[in-house]
Write a structure and sequence with these properties.
Blueprint (H helix, E strand, L loop, with lengths): L6 H13 L2 H8 L3 H15 L4 E3 L4 E3 L1 H29 L3 E7 L1 H18 L3 E7 L13 E5 L8 E6 L2 E6 L1 H7 L15 E2 L8 E6 L2 E6 L5 E2 L2 H9 L4 E5 H10 L3 E2 L6 E2 L2 E5 L7 H16 L10
């Protein structure tokens, strides 16, 4: 049996059944009688039964048509209920949302944005987890991961928030004391502050520069798994740091830190990553769209002009 029919066929069928007339059904639906006849014939062929007995004046629903009418009404009512439910979910989303991101991105930006999201939609139950590691989105049960850098997992869906890059920086005091490197290779002879980031190889800085992709192995007297510690050391003049431009933009403008080798950058776009396409969840779609909107242009937006 060919099941090639849709909700429009069921609506036309129910109208004909109620009115016992192709003409009356066509008038009710605002379509032609010929189109009604064509769709009913197609539905009968798809179902493999005769739905109506036709005479020159009227149509009479068959026994099979009576059964089909009961099921068609259930299907149409279920479709209408689904549409109403999705509409309500979009207008007033409710339920849990588990979100993860890195420490500084979460504390300085995402947490404030989620507070505004909860004020607008108080029925949401928001959990934010801040970690400087790559999480297993599905295994750890998170709905959204706001991350910096490449999204390599093929089973995840990535929604680009903004272009960004990591840049090399050092405090004026360090540059006065140790000098300013002129090539990427010279970083091997400088104090580089090492941070075990979510996706960066430890001790190797891969950069894009005038000659394409280059890498340099770096060392230094200080390192940490906490981004705040490494950032503070850089501001204190302890060495050179590789950091997202949005995370150091304010200090750059104030002159508390300066770019090193400004022709070099490490691409590190910002993404909202989900385990399923947004169409599957109204509240997930709302959350991601709100985060993207606010991180691009809201009060707590990222300054991605540096880099």
């Amino acid at each position: 049996m060919n099941n090639d029919w849709d909700l429009a066929d069921l609506r036309i069928f129910c109208s004909v059944a109620r009115r016992s007339s192709f003409v009356a059904a066509a008038t009710e639906l605002g379509i032609s009688t010929a189109y009604v006849s064509k769709r009913i014939a197609g539905l009968e062929q798809a179902l493999g039964v005769r739905l109506f007995h036709r005479t020159t004046r009227r149509v009479h629903i068959s026994d099979e048509g009576e059964t089909a009418y009961l099921w068609a009404r259930k299907v149409l009512e279920a479709a209408d209920d689904m549409r109403r439910e999705l509409s309500r979910a979009k207008e007033a989303p409710a339920g849990p949302l588990r979100i993860s991101t890195s420490l500084r991105l979460g504390r300085n930006h995402v947490s404030h944005i989620l507070a505004e999201l909860e004020r607008r939609y108080p029925a949401l139950e928001i959990w934010l987890e801040l970690v400087d590691r790559r999480i297993d989105l599905i295994g750890e049960g998170f709905d959204v991961d706001i991350r910096v850098g490449e999204v390599a997992e093929p089973h995840l869906v990535a929604h680009r928030i903004a272009p960004s890059a990591r840049i090399l920086c050092a405090a004026p005091a360090y540059l006065q004391r140790r000098g300013r490197p002129k090539t990427l290779a010279e970083l091997a002879h400088h104090d580089c502050l090492l941070f075990r980031d979510r996706d960066q190889p430890f001790g190797v800085w891969r950069m894009e520069g005038p000659h394409g992709a280059e890498a340099v192995k770096v060392t230094g007297p200080m390192g940490s798994n906490h981004s705040d510690a490494v950032r503070n050391w850089a501001l204190d003049g302890q060495g050179i740091i590789l950091l997202s431009g949005w995370d150091i933009a304010e200090e750059l403008r104030a002159g508390r830190i300066e770019r090193v080798l400004p022709d070099y950058r490490q691409p590190a776009d910002i993404w909202a990553v989900t385990p399923a396409r947004l169409a599957s969840s109204a509240r997930l779609r709302l959350c991601v769209e709100f985060l993207i909107e606010q991180l691009r242009g809201g009060r707590w937006a990222l300054d991605t002009s540096v880099g």
